[in-house]
Design a protein that fits this description.
Elements: E1 5-9, H1 12-22, E2 26-31, H2 58-72, E3 73-83, E4 87-88, E5 91-92, H3 95-106, E6 109-110, E7 115-119, E8 135-142, H4 160-165, E9 170-173, E10 180-183, E11 197-200, H5 216-226, E12 232-235, H6 242-249, E13 253-258, H7 261-277
Parallel strand pairs: 1-13, 2-3, 2-12, 7-11, 12-13
Antiparallel strand pairs: 3-8, 4-5, 6-8, 7-8, 9-10
Helix pairs in contact: 1-2, 2-3, 5-6, 6-7
């Protein structure tokens, strides 16, 4: 069912340039790009391996991608960026502030405070001066100050406290003259508006063969709130195609790009498994039946980044 999705093997910037030349547009972008590291090594080999990007250079490196994202995003579209801070010599590096500022100069609007992805479980750490890190950011950028935003798709059940409180009239204050009034408030039957803390587990499913996956529930939440049925979702650093699984599960289309052939093949198998079974994960005992090399990422440092 490849009419529902496209997976492109190649350099993300080159693939995006081809999409721009064809006038191809997407309704939403959700991605978690290769994170920064502290060694300078830009040289890549033909097989897709590349060194990490030094944190001092990361913003300018990433701007080459965001410039192209602007050109493929439909009007009022959203770009959701999952990324985290970096501790450099004991302090938080200002790379994210630099990136947000420079993206605003490109024409991006940061239309909301950062969403917090709170992880129910997290990697144990042994840090002497900081608490355990249990969350990451998802920044909401758009080419418009009024992006498509489907809050109804992510409403939640009203709390019992709210239900009891609103059985009676509640006190309100007129902001101009400070006069106290009371009025009856009717709860929205669809539920309460979603808040900006998204709670899921960290991805721990052993069948997701990628060194830095995010949980499918995270991608699902943003796919539902930032797009409509039938829209095309782009992940320019597709990895294990988790974004694609979330998109197709909710009747969107998907375009994924990755430099690593293993990721493209794994993503295609995972998506086809979803389309045939409805399952978001290939069972671990079936990976080899799909011809997937389960030891691929066990070689330390192999093919981790997609430049």
């Amino acid at each position: 069912m490849e009419s529902q999705y496209k997976l492109h093997l190649g350099n993300t910037k080159n693939i995006l340039d081809e999409m721009i030349d064809r006038g191809e547009k997407v309704g939403m972008i959700f991605t978690s790009p290769p994170y920064f590291a502290f060694r300078k090594n830009y040289s890549g080999n033909d097989d897709g391996e590349i060194g990490a990007i030094h944190v001092d250079d990361y913003a300018d490196w990433f701007l080459e991608f965001t410039d192209r994202f602007l050109k493929v995003l439909e009007p009022n579209g959203s770009f959701f960026l999952n990324i985290n801070d970096k501790i450099d010599n004991g302090v938080v590096h200002p790379v994210l502030d630099e990136l947000k500022y420079k993206m605003s100069k490109q024409g991006w609007y940061l239309v909301a405070k950062p969403y917090i992805w709170f992880k129910k479980n997290s990697m144990p750490t042994n840090c002497k001066y900081r608490a355990i890190d249990r969350y990451e950011y998802v920044f909401h950028f758009s080419n418009s100050t009024k992006p498509k935003f489907r809050a109804d798709n992510c409403r939640v059940e009203h709390s019992e406290v709210t239900k009891r409180r609103l059985k009676s009239e509640i006190t309100t204050i007129n902001s101009r003259d400070g006069v106290y009034n009371t009025k009856k408030v009717t709860l929205n039957e669809k539920g309460a508006l979603p808040h900006n803390v998204v709670i899921t587990a960290a991805e721990s499913n052993p069948s997701v063969l990628h060194p830095a996956p995010f949980h499918v529930e995270l991608a699902e939440w943003f796919v539902k709130i930032g797009s409509d049925v039938g829209d095309t979702i782009l992940d320019p650093f597709a990895g294990s195609s988790t974004t694609g699984v979330a998109a197709l599960k909710h009747d969107r289309k998907f375009i994924g790009i990755d430099l690593v052939e293993f990721n493209i093949n794994f993503g295609r198998n995972r998506i086809e498994h979803l389309l045939s079974t409805g399952e978001c994960y290939i069972p671990k005992n079936m990976l080899e039946e799909y011809g997937i090399d389960v030891n691929y990422y066990k070689v330390k440092g192999k093919h981790i980044n997609n430049p």
